[in-house]
Write a structure and sequence with these properties.
203 residues, mainly alpha, 7 helices, binds zinc ion
C-alpha cells in the first residue's frame, strides 16, 4: 500500500504558494461561485469557514452568516490568484450584481447537473425555472429533510459540498464527479450558451 503524502495548508492565507489543487478542467461554462468553491473545499479538504473568511472583501465577518454570492462582496482577484482561474471565469460565476432580486434567495438545483458536479449561474436566476440542459424543473428543497439553504457563501453551505447543509444528504442520487468526468456534451454546452445569450443582461 502506498502512503499518500500529507500536504499542509496554511489556513490563514488562501494563496497559490501553499499549493491549492484546482484544475480549470473541473469546471463547465458559467459554473456558479458556490459550485467552484465546493470543488475547492472538497479537493483540498478545506474548512468552509476559512474559505469564507479569506474571500470576503470585508474583514471580521461571521463565517456562518457569510456573504452574498455577489461580485461586490467576494474578493474576486484573490480567488483568481489563489486558484489560477481566469478572471473572466471567476466573474462569470456570479449573476450581475447591479441588478437586485434576480436570484432565487435559496440554493436551487438540477439533480442531474449535480450528478456531474455542476451548478450553474442560471440555476439561481429567478426567471429560469427549468434546467437548460435537462429541461426538468429546478428544485430548492432537500428531498430528505425539506430544508432550504440560503444561497450565500457561508460555512453551512461550503462545508456540505453538493449536500443539504441541514441533514447532509446528497441532493442528487449519485456522488458528483469532480476530477474524472467526461467533457460536457455539445448539446448541453449549446443549451447553456443559448440561455446565457438570451439572458445576457443578468450575467
Ligand atoms: Zn440539469
Ligand atoms: Zn436535508
Amino acid at each position: 500500500m502506498t502512503t499518500l503524502p500529507i500536504m499542509l495548508y496554511n489556513e490563514q492565507a488562501l494563496t497559490p504558494s501553499f499549493g491549492y489543487v484546482f484544475d480549470p478542467k473541473w469546471l463547465d461554462p458559467y459554473e456558479s461561485i458556490v459550485s467552484i468553491l465546493w470543488k475547492l473545499v472538497r479537493m483540498n479538504r478545506l474548512s468552509g469557514h476559512m474559505v469564507v473568511t479569506q474571500l470576503a472583501r470585508e474583514s471580521g465577518i461571521d463565517p456562518y452568516v457569510g456573504i452574498a454570492a455577489s461580485r461586490s462582496e467576494v474578493d474576486i482577484r484573490r480567488l483568481h490568484q489563489a486558484l489560477g482561474l481566469q478572471l473572466k471565469i471567476v466573474r462569470g460565476s456570479f449573476s450581475s450584481s447591479a441588478l437586485n432580486n434576480i436570484n432565487n434567495p435559496n440554493f436551487r438545483y438540477c439533480r442531474k447537473c449535480l450528478c456531474r458536479g455542476y451548478h450553474g449561474v442560471m440555476h439561481q436566476l429567478e426567471m429560469v425555472t427549468t434546467c437548460p440542459v435537462h429541461e426538468c424543473l429546478l428544485e430548492d428543497v432537500c428531498g430528505e429533510c425539506g430544508a432550504r439553504m440560503p444561497y450565500r457563501i457561508n460555512a453551512h453551505l461550503l462545508d456540505a459540498p453538493y449536500r443539504c447543509g441541514s441533514c447532509r444528504k446528497l441532493y442528487a442520487s449519485c456522488h458528483p464527479a469532480i476530477a474524472n468526468r467526461r467533457p460536457l456534451g455539445r448539446k448541453a454546452r449549446t443549451a447553456i450558451t443559448r440561455l446565457r445569450f438570451n439572458h445576457c443582461s443578468y450575467f
